[in-house]
Amino acid sequence: MFTxxxxxxxxxxxxxxxxxxxxxxxxxLHGGGGPATVAGLAGHLAKTMHTITPTHPGWDGTPRPAxxxxxxxxxxxxxxYLQDLGLRDxxxxxxxxxxxxxxxxxVRDTAGIITGLILIDAVGVHVEAEPITDFFALDAHxxxxxxxxxxxxxxRDPAGIPAEQLAIQQGNMATMRVLAGDPSMHDPKLLxxxxxxxxxxxxxxxxxxxxxxxxxxxxxxxxxxxxxLQVIPEAGHLPQIEQPEATFAHIDTYLRRPSANxxxxx
Length: 266
What we know:
This protein has about 270 residues and is α/β, with parallel strands linked by helices. The chain contains ten helices and eight strands. The chain has helices spanning about 40-45, 70-85, 95-110, 140-145, 150-155, 165-180, 190-195, 215-225, 240, 245-255; strands at about 5-10, 15-20, 25-30, 50-55, 90-95, 115-120, 200-205, 225-230. The chain has an eight-stranded mixed beta sheet, with helices on both faces. Helix 2 (about 70-85) packs across helix 3. Residues about 260-265 have low confidence and may be disordered.
C-alpha cells in the first residue's frame, strides 16, 4: 500500500513523497511525464525494497520555490533528504530527467549514501555526435514518434485530453523548461565528472528512443567509472512502460550482483 505525504525539507520547500514496501531504500525519480511514468517500477521494486517516489516540485501542481531553478538544486534537495533520514545503502533509479538528477546526486554524494545507481534513458550530458532532441519543439505527433517504439499506440490527441489534465501537463512542461536550463536538457560539466563515480551503474535504454539515442546512452555509460549499458528492444524513451518485463528483469539481475550492494559502507 502506498503512503503519500509531504516532508518540509527546507523552510520554503516541501517534498511530496509516495512510499511503500520494506527493506533496502530505493529512491525512484521520474522524468518530464511525472510520477505516473515510474509507478509500475516503484510497485515492482516494492516487492523487496522500501521505495520512495517523489513528485518533483512544480510537477502535478506541487509548489516549487523560486530559487529551485536547476537540476543541481533538485539533486541536492533529495541528497539532503536522504542524509537527514540517516538512510544508507540507497539505490537511486532515475528515468529521463530523473536519471539526470540521479547522476547529479551521485557526483555530490561524498558520504557514500548511494550504493546502487540505475539510469533509464537519462538526459543530462552533452554528447557531440548524438545531440539531444529538442523535446520542447515537438508537437503531439512528434512526441509519439520520437519517444515511443509503438508511436500509434501511445499517441495522444491533445483535443481528447480533459482540460484539467491538459493544464497539469502544461504546468509540468513549464517547470521542466525552468529546471532543464540553458543549454537545454544537460549540464555541460557533468560528463567529465562521472568518471569519479565508481559504484556499479546500470544504464537501461530503449532501442527505439529518438529523444536520446542508444549511442548517446553508450557514451553516457562509458563516462562512468563502472557503467554498463543494456539496450531493450521494442522500447523507446520509457522502456519501463513499453517493455516492463524486460526492464524489470535487467534491474533484478543488477540487484542480485553482490557488487551492487554496500559499495561504500563507510
